[in-house]
Design a protein that fits this description.
The chain is an all-alpha fold. The chain has one domain. It is built from three helices and no strands. Helix 1 packs antiparallel against helix 2.
Length: 73
């Protein structure tokens, strides 16, 4: 799962970083430190997202089983 999460992190992190940098530019922030910070923030936010996606890809029925388990109780 670690390898899958790492591969997904590169894709998801680049997407999040790109979205946040674009949002910062549109908001009028043009200082390089701010743009770099938003890119780093996007990469950091991608860590839990990539882990969740990797977990869902490995065990796609895990969420459904948990919901059924709760409903039965």
């Amino acid at each position: 799962m670690r390898t899958l999460a790492l591969i997904l992190h590169f894709v998801i992190g680049a997407t999040f970083a790109g979205v946040l940098v674009t949002a910062a530019i549109i908001a009028g922030f043009h200082h390089p430190a701010i743009l770099l910070g938003t890119g780093v923030l996007g990469m950091l936010l991608a860590i839990p997202a990539s882990l969740l996606v990797a977990r869902a890809m490995i065990a796609p029925n895990a969420c459904a089983d948990a919901e059924n388990d709760i409903a039965i109780r």
